[in-house]
Every structure is written in structure tokens, then in C-alpha cells.
Specification:
Helix content is 8%, strand content 31%. It has 634 residues and is mostly beta strands. The chain has a domain at 22-429 and 467-479: Galactose oxidase/kelch, beta-propeller (Methylamine Dehydrogenase, Chain H), CATH 2.130.10. The strands form 10 sheets. Strands 19-36-34-39-40-32 form a 6-stranded mixed beta sheet. The longest helix is centred in the last third of the chain and has 16 residues, at 618-633. It binds 2-acetamido-2-deoxy-beta-D-glucopyranose (4 copies) and copper (II) ion.
Length: 634
């Protein structure tokens, strides 16, 4: 144990100090540490990051010295200064390690289920869900529905908030997927009864889903979840604009209609296309791929398209590069093949950027997800390059090389300035085990791991590993931040809820770059490459001048799912403004007055504008020309 203090010091001191705003595109390690390591990463207003960690376990410091044992940290991120500040102020009663989560309709977050692995000093043995302290990993899951409510000002200056942990699900769930629906209900699916042990699967399967607040009763059995076991943890799931829920488990896809009361049957579930038969392991933990929704544009009817990428091959232990997509709301939809990832990876993170491109980061080239706090490491060969996907061209470009490995338990989050941070990894000590960043090998296969390797890192021998918990945040600045001046949005009312089918006026500062597009990117939460929140909407502009842009919030809450969104304005060069926070939810419709006189957009231009995800679509040029013309005229 004496090794720990020196290891921590080394970890903390190896970040190179950065000063001020990034000056070139690419990666940099931010100043400071997260305190708690970010196994779960959730965005709150004001670039406040909530990180939830695995309680530290032997042989590592049982009490995390940074947090004095608390497992939830709130971290204020200053993307311009390159600084992060840990605020030690948000304990949970019921350990949230291994929970599922989503952004909540009121701007808070849901954190549901988890693992009762002991965390001191918040550990309280009198709480039934906190099992006796035997310091092993195979506890029963937690049945708690936790809600984090924002503090009154919902800003970085007031990050405290409060936890409500009284509500319960019908069962315990470890590794459930959670998503927020249009009416604010949360859908909670799968999650085993306890921390899964692939060598003893007798008491873990929980092939059911339920809703909170409760709907129907007690919960609903899913034959697809049951069929896929043990490959049914953290299923991929999204709220679809049709109101149905997309769920993909292993290689089967179902649509669940929450409006249909199924009784004790599966009457609300319809299976749609299976994924094509290719050399790919089940598309789910521990062969973890990631999934996201393509940007959705008003000009093309806001059609939803789910993309799934990465994971593991079936024939070998190498990562897979495959990407597939489907439009689940379209009758008869089939999965189709997209361009493959330039770098095969499992445990990747996909982050939708304000211009509608998608950044792929994190992950490993070999092995599988899983491991015991760095003591047994199932994945090797960290993938450092980052890859950018252009959905219009179906094309990938490699756009930088990260410095920090992001193996098991990693995350990535878009900040309001348009940069992306990567978080987490509990295999920061993977070199103890694997030797070199490129080592792979069947002799170290998780299934038949030779004791020579295992012992290097296992606490029963006194050769304890170095600290596995990664506390650093690395920041990626996309090229668009260096392509010209940024548009400037004037401050937006931070406490107002904007409701469905309202028209919204965005005040623009004419000293910023002229605006050609508005995009809305939902705040996210992510763990285990599972991010049900992420989506980008591009409304058609109803009016545009140098000082004002007007657009309509979609009428459909299952499209513009309630909660916090980033509102970005983009220049004709694709340079985003700093986002303003917009809380979308139920309420009275408000309509901005569309000024009479010349507008930067005509109805025709708006109608045909295809969104310019690739920055070259003629619609934008038309729009840019219209803006320029209006300026000349004005
Ligand atoms: C950022 O952190 C550096 C180094 O820790 C410090 O010198 C600087 O004052 C900080 N800047 C801001 C704006 O907080
Ligand atoms: C789906 O997965 C099952 C179980 O892993 C496998 O038997 C089946 O062949 C797969 N189907 C396709 C189309 O890959
Ligand atoms: C996966 O590989 C095994 C052999 O390792 C093979 O028996 C099985 O059919 C493969 N499954 C799929 C879906 O290709
Ligand atoms: C949205 O509002 C417009 C008028 O502003 C109205 O014509 C339209 O029917 C509304 N749509 C829905 C779905 O309520
Ligand atoms: Cu995990």
C-alpha cells in the first residue's frame, strides 16, 4: 500500500501545464485533476462535469485521497483557460458505480441502479443495499432511482444541487440502460441482478424493462434480452421521433411502443431487422461498440438514423472497424453498411459536434471490456488517433492523436465552447500488465490468462500494481475553432423553459461572424460507450439578420427530448459560436415576432437548405449570398 502515495504524486505531476485558450487544433491535457475518476461522465450547465467513480478497492487506497472516499465529484471546467477544478460536494447514499443515466426533463440528471461495492466514508452498513464488506466485486445490484436536481441558478457558480434517492425500481439493476422520453418518463432496460461473473451466470439474468414513474406492472419480460444473455448489458437504446424506443441487443433490434400497455406480454414490442452476418462478436458489452443518432434536419423531415460502430471481431480478439446504420422509424428498414472506422476500436466514444460531424475517440485495439480496477486488464493496445466522421460524405478523416489512453470505463463530452473532453479509464496502469502500448497476445487472453501476468497486478502477492485510476482530462479542439471568427450569441435567459413548436429568437452580436445555421445539441451523459442522450437537431431558419435568427423548436417532444441543450450558431465556414444553454420542455408556446422587411432567408432557401454538414452544400452558399446581399441592401 505504501506504493500508492508516490504513484499518485507521479500521476498528478505528469500533466504539462497549459496556459489560456488552445491556439491550434488537436489535443491538450488540461490543468488539474477530476478528484473522482470519471467512470460515469455527465454534463451539467456551465460546463460542470459530474463524475462518478468505482469505489477504490484493494490494493489501491481504499479511500480515494482526492475525495476522502466520496464517489461523485462535480468538476468545473474552464475550456478557455484549460483548467479543471474539482468541487468535493456531492455525496450519494447509494453507490452509483455501474448505474445507467440520462439527462432529465427539468435539466437535472437521472442516475439509476448500480453496484453496492463499499465506498467509505459514505458507506453505511445499515442500508440494506450496501452489502457486507467482503471487498469483492460480485455484490447484488442496486434498485435505486436517483435524481440529481440542479441548484437554483443552474450555473457553474452554483453547482451544488441535491440528490433524491428514495425511489426504487421493481428490481436491482447492474449495467442498465436508461433513457429519457418525450414526456419526461425514464425507460430503464436490462441490467443484471448483480455484478456479472461470466464463470457463474446462474443468478444474474434480468431480462426485463420498466419505466419511472412506474407504468404497467410490475415490469416487462423481454425475450430478446433473455435470448441474448449474458450479452444483454447496457443495450443500445434511443428515443425515436415516432415515440417508439429503439433497442439493439447483441445483433437483434426491437422497437418498443410505450403507449401500448402490454399487460404481462410483449405486445408493445416488435422485432425489426437483424444486423448483417459479418465477422463481429455480439454488438454489446464486453465487445463494446458505440452508437449515436445521425444529425437530424428539419429540411429533410428530422428522420432518425441510428449508427453503430466498432466493438470486437468474432474470429479473433482484435477490435472491429465496422459501422452500420438503420432508420428504425421507416417501415421495412434494414441495416446498411457505412464506411469503416479508420482505426478499429472497442469501447469507443462518439461525440456529435455542433457542425454535424462526429468525433470518434477512446478505446482499445484488442481484447474486451471489463477488469477489476486495473488489477486484471482485459484490453490492450490503446487507440490514440481520433477520427472525424462526415455523415453527408460518409467519409472519415483522422484529426489528431491523443496523449492519454482511454481504456475500460472511459467517456467523452462536448462542452459549450465546441471542444470535446475525454475522461476516465481505470487501466491507467495497463503497462504494468501489458508491457508496451502495442502488446497484444493470446498468452494474455482474459479467458486463459496465465498466472504470471495475473500475479503482477493482483493484491494477493505483494507486487501491487501502480494506481489504475486516470484523473486527467484531455481536451480536443476541432479545426473549426481555427477557421475564422466565431459568431456570437447574446446571453440567453437561463431559467426559462422553451416549449414545443415555439418560435425562438436568438440575438446575435453583429461584431461576431455572420451566422448561416443554428444547431441544437443535447447535453449528454455517458458510460461504457453508452450515451442515449446525444442528438443534434438542425432547425430551418425562419428569419436571419446580422442581429437575429429565428427558428422553430420541433413540435415533437420525442424528437427534441426535454432537458438541457446547447444552442450553437454557425458561420458559413462552419465555425460555431460558444453555445448558450437552452432548456426545452413542456409549457406554454411562445412565438417570436418575425420582423417585416428583408430577411437573410427566404422560405425557398430555407426549404431547400440541406444543412451543409460538410460545409460545401450549395444551400449554405445560397444562404450566405442572401445574407451578404441583405447587408448590401441594408
Ligand atoms: C489555470 O491554472 C493555472 C495553473 O494551475 C493557473 O496558473 C491559472 O491562474 C489558472 N487560470 C484560470 C483562469 O483559472
Ligand atoms: C446473431 O447472434 C447469434 C448469437 O451470437 C448468432 O448465432 C447468429 O448467427 C447471429 N446472427 C447474425 C446474422 O450474425
Ligand atoms: C464466431 O466464431 C466461432 C468460431 O470461433 C464460430 O463457430 C461462430 O459461427 C462464429 N459466429 C458468427 C456469428 O460468425
Ligand atoms: C405549430 O405551430 C404552427 C403555428 O405557429 C401551427 O400551424 C402548427 O399546426 C403547429 N404544429 C403543431 C404540431 O402543433
Ligand atoms: Cu464497467
Amino acid at each position: 500500500m505504501q506504493v500508492t502515495a508516490t504513484v499518485l504524486t507521479a500521476l498528478l505531476s505528469c500533466a504539462v501545464a497549459v496556459e489560456g485558450a488552445a491556439t491550434t487544433a488537436g489535443w491538450r491535457i488540461m490543468n488539474g485533476i477530476t478528484g473522482s475518476f470519471c467512470l460515469h461522465s455527465l454534463l451539467l450547465p456551465g460546463n460542470v462535469l459530474m463524475c462518478i467513480e468505482r469505489p477504490h478497492t484493494h490494493p489501491y487506497p481504499y479511500i480515494n485521497p482526492n475525495t476522502n472516499g466520496l464517489t461523485v465529484a462535480l468538476i468545473t471546467i474552464d475550456p478557455n483557460a484549460g483548467n479543471i477544478t474539482y468541487n468535493n460536494n456531492s455525496p450519494v447514499k447509494y453507490n452509483a458505480f455501474c448505474a445507467g443515466h440520462s439527462q432529465a426533463a427539468d435539466g437535472g440528471v437521472w442516475v439509476i441502479g448500480g453496484d453496492p461495492q463499499e465506498s467509505t466514508p459514505t458507506y453505511d452498513a445499515s442500508i440494506a443495499e450496501n452489502k457486507p464488506d467482503d471487498k469483492t466485486f460480485l455484490f447484488y445490484g442496486i434498485d435505486r432511482v436517483r435524481k440529481f436536481n440542479l441548484g437554483p441558478s443552474a450555473s457553474a457558480a452554483d453547482v451544488k444541487g441535491t440528490w433524491d434517492e428514495d425511489a426504487k425500481m421493481t428490481t436491482a439493476r447492474w449495467y442498465p440502460t436508461v433513457l429519457t422520453q418525450g414526456d419526461g418518463t425514464v425507460f430503464i432496460t436490462s441490467g443484471s441482478l448483480k455484478n456479472i461473473d461470466f464463470e457463474d451466470l446462474s443468478v444474474t439474468n434480468n431480462p426485463t424493462y420498466e419505466f419511472y414513474p412506474p407504468k404497467y406492472s410490475p415490469n416487462i419480460f423481454s425475450s430478446v434480452l433473455n435470448w441474448a444473455f449474458p450479452h444483454n448489458l447496457y443495450p443500445m437504446a434511443f428515443q425515436l421521433p415516432s415515440g417508439k424506443i429503439f433497442m439493439m441487443v447483441s445483433n437483434r433490434t426491437v422497437l418498443i411502443d410505450p403507449k401500448v400497455d402490454p399487460g404481462n406480454t410483449e405486445a408493445n414490442t416488435v422485432e425489426i431487422a437483424s444486423v448483417p452476418a459479418i465477422d463481429h462478436a455480439p454488438w454489446i458489452y464486453p465487445h463494446t461498440p458505440t452508437a449515436f443518432l445521425m444529425p437530424m434536419k428539419e429540411s429533410t423531415g428530422y428522420v432518425a438514423e441510428v449508427v453503430i460502430c466498432g466493438g470486437s471481431k468474432n474470429s479473433t480478439s482484435y477490435a472491429a472497424a465496422d459501422c452500420l446504420s438503420i432508420q428504425p422509424d421507416v417501415p421495412g428498414a434494414q441495416w446498411k453498411t457505412l464506411a469503416s472506422l479508420p482505426h478499429a476500436r472497442l469501447m469507443p466514444e462518439a461525440t456529435i459536434l455542433p457542425d454535424g460531424t462526429i468525433l470518434f475517440t477512446n478505446g482499445m485495439g484488442w481484447g474486451q471490456a471489463g477488469g477489476n480496477g486495473g488489477q486484471a486488464q482485459y484490453a490492450a493496445a490503446p487507440v490514440f488517433p481520433s477520427d472525424l466522421y462526415d455523415p453527408v460524405a460518409n467519409k472519415w478523416t483522422t484529426v489528431g492523436t491523443a496523449q492519454v489512453a482511454r481504456s475500460y470505463h472511459n467517456g467523452a463530452i462536448l462542452l459549450s465552447d465546441g471542444s470535446v473532453i475525454t475522461t476516465g479509464n481505470e487501466m491507467a496502469n495497463y503497462l504494468d500488465f501489458w508491457g508496451t502500448p502495442t502488446a497484444v497476445g493470446p498468452d494474455r487472453d482474459f479467458a486463459k490468462m496465465s498466472s504470471a501476468y495475473k500475479q503482477d497486478c493482483y493484491p494477493v502477492v505483494e507486487k501491487a500494481c501502480t494506481n489504475p485510476y486516470e484523473y486527467r482530462i484531455e481536451q480536443f479542439s476541432p479545426q473549426y475553432l481555427f477557421n475564422g471568427p466565431r459568431p456570437i450569441i447574446k446571453p440567453f435567459p437561463s431559467t426559462q423553459t422553451f416549449t414545443y413548436n415555439s418560435t425562438i429568437s436568438v440575438s446575435l452580436d453583429p461584431s461576431g461572424a455572420p451566422v448561416t445555421r443554428i444547431t441544437l445539441v443535447r447535453y449528454t451523459t455517458t458510460t461504457h460507450s453508452t450515451n442515449t442522450d446525444q442528438r443534434l437537431l438542425e432547425p430551418t431558419l425562419l428569419y436571419l439578420s446580422s442581429t437575429q435568427a429565428i427558428f422553430r423548436i420541433p413540435a415533437n417532444p420525442n424528437l427534441a427530448v426535454p432537458g438541457n441543450w446547447h444552442l450553437f450558431a454557425l458561420s458559413d465556414k462552419g465555425v460555431p459560436s460558444v453555445a448558450e444553454r437552452i432548456l426545452i420542455g413542456a409549457g406554454d408556446v411562445t412565438n417570436a415576432q418575425i420582423p417585416s422587411g428583408p430577411s437573410g432567408v427566404s422560405t425557398a432557401a430555407a426549404g431547400t437548405k440541406s444543412g451543409a454538414m460538410d460545409g460545401r452544400v450549395s444551400g449554405v452558399e445560397v444562404l450566405g449570398l442572401a445574407v451578404a446581399l441583405w447587408w448590401v441592401l441594408a
